[in-house]
From TrEMBL, chain B:
Cellular localization per UniProt: Cell membrane
Alphabetized UniProt keyword annotations: Amino-acid transport, Cell inner membrane, Cell membrane, Membrane, Transmembrane, Transmembrane helix, Transport
Protein name: Branched-chain amino acid ABC transporter permease
Origin organism lineage: Bacteria, Bacillati, Actinomycetota, Coriobacteriia, Coriobacteriales
Transmembrane annotation, as ranges: 12-33, 63-81, 93-114, 134-157, 178-205, 225-246, 253-276
Bilayer topology annotation: Multi-pass membrane protein
Origin species: Lancefieldella parvula
GO biological process terms held by the UniProt record: D-alanine transmembrane transport; L-alanine transport; L-isoleucine import across plasma membrane
């Protein structure tokens, strides 16, 4: 005999379910006094998963080393890792979940768009956040709680324009994803600075996100005979752009920002060594940098994961370093874990600290943007090498 | 430079046309917008990538495997996901198609990873010089293959018994069944043909753009769907014309320096055609039988 669902019974069941949810919400989680809980978020599946996974590897490597060195005042960092699939809505859901897990700070997000969503939400709770790699200008504009380890998109555009001037380029064309904050940011800053420096920008060609056919845009740019072409996009697009341009008979150098990292020498090559010869991109990190800190990191990373670190891994490592050195300072003060003054103290410690990272010595001068030097990297026979260093003015 | 741009448009349009043909055939026979069609192309490209890179097979074998893989997948999807819903409301089967699409995208991502795979060149055709313009051999091949495929498909539908059965099922499924047409095998055959075209498109796509990713079918499928609707969904010449219109408008909008408006122009064109001619350029108005 089937149970008859009366209104009374329905209310009873609904009440029980609602009650159990409410209880679950109240139950205190993660209260171990010997631990500091840190949220780690990023896209680990989806279109931009490669960046998320690389940043996460760098973060987890640093946290492991840090914990081995007795952590922050004897307390161990416990990381709570969540996937936001590269999506802003998911990022907010993950953020709420991390707060429920009693985290006092977040290492995230990875790409610009969800990081802006995170910045808007986290400022309300004054949760300290350090993003390894989100470069859009807006990311740190929402409050003082947001810091980044990487330099900004516009900063990279300016560096590239100054580099173009140094190279003696007179005429430059640009091809960029007009649906991406990152690409637009670099492109616009480049164009503005290039014009100030007297470089003629002959053509700016946008393309929609997900485009695979760049022949029409490239045919237009090549027809204007520029000295170099700026392609400030991610490596998958840049690979196709460079390959298609070479097929159209163009031999001019391409320039780009740190989204180029990984175009060659990784699991697979997105453009051939011959096509990339003499192209440039700016980046904070290259594994062949002879610097001692960088070499220690490359060795430790390779031992841990069995592959060489990319730019994004190094930024993840530095982001974790920035947060952990602040936590170390704060732990000496004796505030209650995760109280308001505890969170504020972390923010203050990051803002006033100087960190010797693998992407350069960096400090914050009143904003969430780091001040550090940028490397210009070139390709020769399919190998990357440091071509020049542009110092912050 | 103008000739180069024309060929750019023809190449892109041809790929859209091949994909649009798959949409239009399935819609023609069971009135289903097969949203998984773009993902069948993705699957075909991955088969080609596995055959070429992982297994190191001969390019000719890789091409055949990719087309065969698409046919098997297309028929399998119909048997497993759509056939049980033949009598269900059309909305159910539409939602199922979207579900299949997500299943394929996420399945491939789970098995092979989210990052794009680089497909090595299947055949190097070099470039051809015509009237001082550099034309890519791959583009010329793409256009030629599309013309042949369209002619063969038209003959198949118009001149063979199977084609007659397809047209009968599309006209009236119940009456066709009463006349002794095996409706289920006819529908399977339609899926097989549509998927074979998807397989060919997958090969041409991989040759032209060198990279495959789990989500590559989404935008390709959407554009081809626009092409099919633009030309009049259900019509074979309509799909080809729609594909070429979409390809040309994308290339020429970009060539005039308005590439930011590329997608907007395509969708605006669709709206304009639908306002003036709701059945698409070559679509026939269907009167509802009561």
């Amino acid at each position: 005999m089937a149970h008859k669902l009366t209104r009374r019974r329905f209310l009873e069941v609904a009440g029980t379910i609602a009650g159990s949810f409410a209880l679950a919400g109240c139950s205190p989680k993660n209260q171990d006094p010997n631990s500091i809980y840190v949220g780690v978020m990023g896209p680990y599946t989806g279109d931009v998963a490669q960046y998320g996974l690389a940043v996460r590897s760098g973060i987890l490597l640093y946290l492991k080393e840090f914990n081995k060195n007795s952590g922050a005042g004897g307390r161990q960092i416990v990381s709570i890792v969540e996937d936001e699939k590269g999506d802003s809505t998911e990022a907010i859901l993950v953020y709420n979940k991390l707060l429920d897990e009693n985290v006092c700070a977040i290492l995230g997000d990875v790409t610009s768009t969800p990081t802006i969503a995170l910045a808007q939400k986290s400022v309300l709770d004054n949760i300290p956040c350090v993003t390894a790699s989100a470069t859009a200008e807006d990311v740190v504009a929402h409050g003082n709680n947001m810091f980044r380890a990487t330099v900004t998109d516009p900063f990279q555009g300016v560096v590239l324009a100054e580099f173009a001037k140094k190279q003696g380029y007179q005429r430059v064309g640009t091809i960029f994803n007009s649906g991406g904050d990152y690409e637009i940011g670099v492109n616009n800053a480049f164009v503005q600075r290039a014009r100030e420096l007297g470089i003629e920008v002959v053509s700016q060609q946008g393309y929609p996100t997900g485009a695979v056919d760049f022949n029409a845009q490239l045919t237009s740019i090549i027809g204007l005979d520029p000295d170099a072409i700026l392609a400030p996009n991610y490596y998958q697009d840049n690979g196709k752009i460079v390959t298609q341009a070479r097929q159209l008979g163009c031999k001019k150098p391409f320039m780009g920002a740190d989204g180029w990292a990984g175009i060659i020498g990784g699991e697979q090559d997105y453009a051939s060594a011959a096509d990339l010869e003499g192209c440039f991109y700016c980046s904070a990190f290259v594994a062949s940098n002879p610097d001692e800190k960088v070499q220690h990191f490359v060795k430790a990373y390779t031992e841990e994961y069995g592959e060489a670190p990319t730019n994004f891994c190094s930024l993840g490592y530095d982001a974790a370093m920035i947060l952990c050195s602040a936590l170390k300072t704060v732990e000496k003060r004796g505030y209650t874990y995760n109280s308001n003054e505890y969170r504020q103290a972390i923010i203050d410690a990051i803002a006033s600290g100087v960190v010797e990272g693998v992407t350069g010595t960096l400090s914050y001068q009143g904003t969430g943007d780091p001040v550090k030097s940028t490397l210009i990297i070139t390709f020769k026979d399919g190998k990357e090498s440091i071509y020049d260093t542009i110092n912050p003015s | 430079m103008f000739l180069t741009q024309v060929l750019n448009g023809l190449q892109l349009g041809s790929i859209y046309a091949l994909v649009a043909l798959g949409y239009t055939m399935v819609y023609g026979i069971i009135l289903l917008l097969n949203f998984a069609h773009g993902d069948i192309i993705m699957f075909g490209s991955y088969v080609a990538w596995i055959a070429l890179v992982q297994l190191g097979l001969n390019p000719a074998i890789a091409v055949l495997l990719a087309i065969f893989g698409c046919v098997v997948l297309g028929v399998l999807i119909d048997k497993v996901a759509y056939a049980p819903l033949r009598e269900a409301p059309r909305l159910s089967i539409l939602i199922t198609a979207i579900g299949v699409s997500y299943l394929l995208e996420n399945g491939v991502q789970l098995l092979l990873g989210a990052d794009a795979k680089v497909v090595p060149s299947i055949i190097d055709l070099g470039t051809v010089q015509v009237f001082g313009s550099t034309l890519s051999g791959t583009a010329l091949l793409t256009v030629a293959v599309t013309i042949v495929a369209t002619v063969v498909l038209t003959l198949l539908v118009q001149k063979t018994r199977l084609g007659k059965a397809m047209r009968a099922v599309s006209e009236d499924m119940g009456a066709a069944r009463l006349m002794g047409v095996n409706v289920n095998s006819t529908i399977s055959f339609t899926f097989a043909v549509g998927s074979a075209l998807a397989g060919i498109a997958a090969i041409l796509y991989s040759m032209a753009y060198q990279q495959v990713s789990p989500t590559m079918g989404v935008m390709l499928g959407t554009k081809a769907f626009v092409a099919a609707v633009l030309g009049g969904i259900g019509s074979i010449p309509g799909a080809v014309i729609g594909g070429l219109i979409v390809g040309f408008s994308e290339v020429f909008v970009a060539a005039f320096g308005l590439s930011v408006w590329q997608d907007a122009v395509v969708f605006l064109l669709l709206i304009l055609v639908l306002v003036v001619k709701p059945t698409g350029l070559l679509g026939r108005p269907v009167t509802e039988k009561v």
